[in-house]
Structures are given as structure tokens and as C-alpha cells.
Amino acid sequence: EEHYLGIKNPEKTIDYIFSHLLNPWYSRCDFKTEDLGSFITTFFNDSVNAIREELRKLSIDWTKLGIYITELCRTLPNPLHKDHINFPSYNAIVPFGIIHGDLKAQNILLIDRSIIIESYPDIEVIGPENSRRPRDVCLIDYANIKQANLFSDLADLETSIKFQLLGMETIKWEELINLEEHILNTLAPQATTKGVRPIQLPRELQIALSSIVAIRETAKKICEKDQRIEPLSFFVHLYVHTLKNIIHKDKTPAQKLYAYISAALILEKQLAKRRINGPDSY
Fold this sequence. Notes:
With about 280 residues, this protein is an alpha+beta fold. The chain has helices spanning about 10-20, 25, 35-55, 80-85, 115-120, 150-165, 175-185, 205-225, 230-245, 255-270; strands at about 30-35, 65-70, 75, 90-100, 110, 135-140, 145-150, 190-195, 195-200.
């Protein structure tokens, strides 16, 4: 978390987390049926009042079917409207296995192994001596390890990058929306536009985009393990993790508003579009 913006290629660090540190768990996953509609409805049953209270503090009228977002100059579906919190049953095949359960930025440590070896010469070093990594990376805080949908870990890390690591004081809303529109249209967004020029984002958001592209590449690889897995399963978990950030006590009003807008865009671009929820007009 502390050195995120200083990492030259954060996508390599993220790729290492999923392809090496978590792969022994992920590679043994099963494929089970999950009711995505019930998953979201259960979350709302537990959290809707807390979220609505936070929206009240942000002067957002959660009773309206659609909310006009000034930063977008258009209306988005309101995730907290009564017509959007009761999801119909939607059974889907999902990747189910052991997950970290709290894969946030503060639980990812970057370690200079040479300093450790110098300070503790008797410590046993595990792994190939000549392995080349972006940095020595380790995960901490395994208190929430459990059997669950693998996409929960991925959604947890993506929302941590967007709603925890970005400096909201220096980023323009138009730039944030540009990022959101780019990454929510597809499971596997590219770090470039049309494969030629970089998407027009400031450096901090370009780093975030590169990181998210790496996360989504893992999601894509998981989907390729079984053709029955729908990308929708990932977006459902991203939706719930995004909404959770609205009620996090350590989030600023700007971060909570960003999370709300992001959730509305997920609802519009993925959930409503695939008829998992909601009316066509709002």
C-alpha cells in the first residue's frame, strides 16, 4: 500500500500474487453452482440500511429509480432503489476453492530479501535462487481464509486499488469516469485503446489501470478453465465488494461517492444488460 505508486510495473507484482502465491489454492478449485441473485439479495438484506444512511450523508436520494450523475452528465440506475435490491434467482457455474478472504493492499508486503538475509544469515530461503521477480512479495493476514468463489479475492483487490490507493484529492472526476467506462465494458480490458495508443489517463490512473488489467487477466484465465463460467459471476462479486466500500469507516466521502458511481455503472453495464436485474428504463 505504502509503495504502490512507486512500483514501476505493479501488474507484474499482481500477476506474481495470483500465478505463484495463490496458484496452489486456485489451481485446485472446483466448479459449483452459485445463485448470484441470492448472493446479492443476501448482501442487501444485511447492509441496505447502512448504505442508505451513508448515501443520505452524501445528499443522494436513494428512493429514486435513477440518479442523475453530474460528473457523467447522464442518469444511471440507482443500486439502492427497491426495484434494484431484490434480485431474481440466477444460477451460474462458478470457480469455488480456497481464497485469502481479505486480499487488500495493506495485506500485500514488498520485501527486500537481501536485507533480511543480511540481518538474519541463518534464515532459510525457500524458492529458486535465480528466480527473477518484480520484488519479493508476500501476503499476510490469513484470518479470513475460507472456501468461496475465487472471484471474491479478485474483486477485493480491484476495489482496494480503486477506493483505497487512489489520491482522490488530485484526480478529476472525468478521469475516474473514463477509467470506469473502460474497465466495466468487458471482463478483460486492455491497457491501451485500439492496441495503439495508451488510454488517456494521468499517471496514477494509468498505474491503476495496469493493475486492474492484471487482475482481470487472472479472471479471464479462471473462466477459460471451464466454458460454463460466465464473466457475470466476476461482476456480481465486484458489485458487492464495491458497495461494501460505501460503508467502510476508513473511506472519505469522495471515495464513497466514487464507489457508489462505480456500482451504478456495474449495474447498468453488466447486471441489467444481462437481465439479471432491474427494469430497462430508469
